[in-house]
Fold this sequence. Notes:
- In chain A, the strands form 2 sheets. Chain A has a 6-stranded antiparallel barrel with strand order 1-2-5-4-3-12. Chain A has a 6-stranded antiparallel barrel with strand order 6-7-8-11-10-9.
- The termini of chain A are far apart.
- Chain A is of the alpha+beta class.
- Chain A has helices at about 1-30, 35-40, 40-60, 65-90, 260-270; strands at about 100-110, 120-125, 135-140, 140-150, 155-160, 165-170, 175-180, 190-195, 205-210, 220-230, 235-240, 250-255.
- Chain A folds into 2 domains: about 1-45; about 45-60 and about 100-270, Rod shape-determining protein MreC, domain 1 (Thrombin, subunit H), CATH 2.40.10.340.
- Chain B has one domain (about 5-165): Arp2/3 complex 21 kDa subunit ARPC3 (Orthogonal Bundle), CATH 1.10.1760.
- Chain B has helices spanning about 5-25, 35-40, 50-65, 70-80, 85-90, 105-110, 110-135, 140-160.
- The longest helix of chain B is centred in the last third of the chain and has 24 residues, at about 110-135.
- Classes of the chains: A alpha+beta, B mainly alpha.
- The interface between A and B is medium-sized, with 33 and 32 residues.
Amino acid sequence: MKNRYGLLSSLTAIALFIVLETVAIVMVVNGSVVQRYKVLGAVRSVESWFWARTSKISYYFNYKTENERLAAENLQLRQQLAGYAAAQAELDSVVRIIEPDYTFIGATVIRNSVDKQHNYLILDRGEKEGVEPGMGVITARGVIGIVSAVSRHYSYVISLLNTEQSVSAKHAGSGAFGPMTWQGRDPGRALLAEIPVHVQVAPGDTVLSSGFSTIYPPDIPIGSVEDTHISQGSSQELTVVLFEDFRSLHNVYIVRNNRGTEIQELYEKAR
Amino acid sequence: MKRPADIFYFVLLFLLQLVISDYVHLGPWICLNLIPLLILLIPLSYRPHAVLLIAFGLGLGLDLLSDGVPGLNAFAAVLAAAPRKFFYRTMVNADRQDKTEVPLMGEVGLVKYLKYLAVLTAIYLVAYVLVDCISFRPAGFIALKVIASWLASTALCLLLALPLQSRN
């Protein structure tokens, strides 16, 4: 009787082991970070509140670097503005009102990871400020990620430093484009693939966002080419040194594509 | 883990793991994990079902409350918890003389304790890193990450096991 009970107990333990491991694997395969964010909404709200406070403390110690970076960005924007002012005179003759393709929402990073395979950011802007899932996140020095989930005051962004994330990027000199992905090792480097072998690429060449997706505006500088190699004899892969230092991210812009819905509707019609 | 002090230390270690996961970043090669030590601290008298469920709960709790993919730590924790008693019997208490509830370093000896802890940590980290990286990371990266994480995690777990050297 005792043996039977022991055998039964062992069998149920094995069954429980299989069930728990299966549940865990199914969660890994299907359970995205977004679901976790939604399931634990209340916990995340408290955590986000706490992170917002701790990020202010760490930001205090980075004021000098951040100010210098913002000053450089301001200078660049002023130069661009001067160029636009000259063009404005010509545009004034055009009667129709030009709606910008993209509008931007400034946000602060309150949580950021760079050392994992699936990195993410939390921003201090949410539904209240008009943030929606699917919007891109950028800085003046690169693309940062895509908004994945939004709460009232915060948004959850899947970082470019995520092995499942891909960004359409192009080689500035030739315009050749391809998917750029992070390889999971160095937060300062990514890989731009599918560049045709005939395209002349040199170390130091700039890589820009292609603008072929509805997520990011075109021509945002992302990084510079470090080296190239031929992949499977048919295309080049470029190692790109990212301009943006993800470890010290603080101020970012959330991008709204004002024509995104229209493009998406057209795409749906064509399918 | 019947004394309030043991439960308190167990909870404290779990909270420390949350802090490590959220705030201690040692690069892509190293992940520090204390869950193997927590599994080791579950009393040996507990039924296998209870041990598996506790391990699953610990892993899933860590997945949900900190950075990570849901199910990843849960998978590794259950895999490490399942053969726990087997390794205890073969590596620590081969002669079946010791009737201890929770094997402690001061009672079983440093070498035996280290071997026991190192094996559980290795099982945990191999499962964790494989599921996290397989199919999109080269084998060399996976192997290096497992070894670096194993060395770092075993050392940290050993350090944190010191306050629990003996019952007296």
